[in-house]
Amino acid sequence: MNKFFPIALLAVLILGCKGGETTAATTGGGSTTALAGQIYNFKFSPTQGEKYRYSMKVVSQGRTVEQGFTIACEKAEGGKFTMVTSIDTFKMDGKDVPASVFQSLKNMKSTAIMDSTGKTLESKTEGAPGGVSADTPTPSLPTKPVKIGDTWEGTAKIGGQEVKYSYKLTGVGNEDGKEVATIEAMTSNIPGGGSLDGPMVLKVELATGMPYSMTMKSKSKDPSGNDVSATMEMTRI
Predict the structure, then answer these.
(1) Cα distance from N-terminal residue to C-terminal residue, the chain
(2) I want to staple 113 with a disulfide (CB 3.0 to 4.6 A). Which of 67, 122, 125, 222 is the partner?
(3) Residue 229 is part of which domain span?
(4) d(Cα 223, Cα 220) in Å, to the nearest integer?
(5) In angstroms, rounded to a whole number, what is the distance separating the alpha carbons of residues 123 and 111?
(6) Are 154 and 128 in contact (CB under 8 A)?
(7) Which of 59, 51, 45 is nearest to 7 (CA)?
(8) CA 105: distance to chain centroid?
(9) Residue 104's pLDDT is what?
């Protein structure tokens, strides 16, 4: 269990980012609905009382971890948002984990106070097994208007270490009646020696700044020096 729980939680950790500064503009990218040169203003603005539910699947070394979790906006006031993340379901290789293990996961609650740029102002995790910390999984949003092809920088803390990310807006389209932006993210210094195997693809709901989906591939070395790869898919349900 201990071997796979951090892998499943990796996506939650790496998305708990501070608001980012737009640093460059390029050309390129595409979208099914975006007009050429159209400007987008990102803002983190979930609705108080709203609950956003997600399903996450991680495959690594022939093992599969499936996790369901909920992000609830408990308070929205004065440009600040209190977001609480909790685990709803947890399976390994299609089977429920032992009841005692699942209960310990359900007892874990991560609370973050965030501003309208998606920056985490305060955070705490209660009831985490082994001292695991899980930030609310929101991508680092640009603090200035951007168009398709623009890039910006952001940072996140993983295991107490600050990690830098670069982001690029690659498209805006409609999914299930929602206007969703597609963002590619890259980093080269995930703690523990791991790295992304290609860009992490994030989809963000423009109306709220909340994540809509995410896919990523990562690679690392095990203690024996063997290559270890992992794939992760997260979707809103």
Answers:
(1) 25
(2) 122
(3) 5-236
(4) 10
(5) 6
(6) no
(7) 59
(8) 19
(9) 84
- pLDDT of 194 reads 72
To the nearest 10°, report the CA torsion of 126, 131, 137, 140. Answer: 120
How far are the Cα atoms of 42, 105, 130, 153, 211 from residue 143, in angstroms, in the given order? 7, 34, 35, 10, 17
Question: Which of 31-45, 108-122, 191-205 has the weakest average pLDDT?
Answer: 31-45
Which stretch of DSSP H or E encloses residue 10?
Answer: helix 5-14
Point out the least confidently predicted range of 11-15, 37-41, 85-89, 186-190.
11-15
- Provide the β-strand partners of residue 36: none
Task: Put residue 218 in one of left, alpha, beta given phi > 0 → left and psi -120 to 50 → alpha.
Answer: beta
- What is d(CA 110, CA 94) in angstroms, rounded to the nearest whole number? 25
Question: Exposed (0-12), middle (13-18) or buried (19+): which is 196, by Cβ within 10 Å?
Answer: middle
Using alpha carbons, select from 208, 176, 206, 203 the residue that is nearest to residue 50: 208
pLDDT tens string 75-118: 999 999 999 989 999 999 999 989 988 888 888 888 889 888 88
Do 196 and 206 contact (CB within 8 A), yes or no? no
128 pLDDT more than 80: no
**Residue 4 corresponds to which tokens in the numbers above?**
């796979």
Name beta bridge partners: 38. Answer: none
Q: How many domains does the chain have?
A: 1
- pTM score of the predicted model: 0.81
| Burial group, residue 115, by CB count within 10 angstroms (0-12, 13-18, 19+) | middle
Lowest mean pLDDT among 50-59, 64-73, 87-96, 125-134: 125-134
